[in-house]
Design brief:
The protein contains seven helices and 14 strands. By secondary structure, it is of the alpha+beta class.
Amino acid sequence: MKTLVTLLLITCMFSALFGSIGIPNDKLHIIKNYRLKNWDSSKTDLNLTARGDIDNSVVESKSLYLGLTPIYERTMETETMQTNIFNTANGILDISNRETSSTEIDKRDIYLDDGFLSTSKMYFSGESYYTVQLNLDINYYNKHTDDGISLVKDKNMLVEGQVFLGVGTGRIYKVSSVIRALRINERMKKIGKGSLSDDEIDKIAYLISKEDDYSSFYSRPDKYLWGDIAKSSGGKLDQLSVYVYEYLKEAMFENIGYRAQGHTLEIGLMLYDSHQKREYDSVETEGDMFMLGPQLRFSYYNNITTSFQVSVDYDAAVTFILEPDLIMDKSFNNNLSFMTLYNITDRLLLANELQYTYSLQNDDFFADDRVTISEFSIGSYLNYMILDKVDLYFDFNLSNMDTDNFNPDYVQNLYKFETSVSTGIKIYLFDRIYRGR
């Protein structure tokens, strides 16, 4: 049965590969030169995720993961201002079984969290801007672990707030709507409807970027959106048949990932505050932490071809921990990630990510009892669009973490290596919102 399902899946993917609609690179300049003059849009989604994991890196482990994720995103942009609001919540049930040579451990974990992120950039001269970012996270979990001998309960509530105030240069434009307009253009050419000019593609991309506004004003939003798209096509899309309309509309659902163009460089002050309350095996603990320090951030997105995008993110920060009871009162953290997105077909998306994190902790970075933590990870994510709002995905991750503690009173080194492979189905009930992998 497993062999039959595997062969059926491979057949479906290769069918999509040879029946796909590509984008020629002679239109790449439209993506690179696209500029949003005045944009205000919002998206709402509710994702259902089911995943089964098998991890044999240390012990044999099997788990079932069920997740419900409501998401809201709003973007407002003019020549002098960019504002993005993103809120996501998660409800997760994770049931797992781990077997060693001597024990079998059953776990039932419930996770609830809500994350709010608001970023505003006010441009004061060319591509120079002031920026304010607010990040608020609320995390709760309730874990039950049964090893056949005892039952351990673990409850935790963590509230975190972070503010970044700084200045920066550069601008990143979201170009997903341009990609979709180019997809429509290719489908038009395939059915003999002619080709859109660069100006017409820009106009249609602008309409697609405001797709959600049509849903807010009209009871039949597709009718009015495609009516305006037809007007912007120079008469090429007048009097569409139902078949042609449905064929062109498919381009609005293709899994293209998060597509952007441009770069930003920022420097500023980061402030962080958190409160945690935990109950572990009937023992309660509670604590607060406040940190601040300078931070440097860099982001870069570039579409090498119309189907291939690379991105780089880097941030470095020196943080001063203002808690007298802690041994470590200062830390240096930096994180570098490199990611590629490749549309193999109009239904098949491949994302690869390489990430490196280095952390140095102590009241004196050059002291003999300093602690260094380095972590390297690589991941690959393959997403296949089965239906307009149903995706099948495969996820592979490999990571290792190396901790060096130079204090002779503690463990000298800790090395951890993990691999994981997972597969699952995502159901988008409203809009497709892509945030990384």
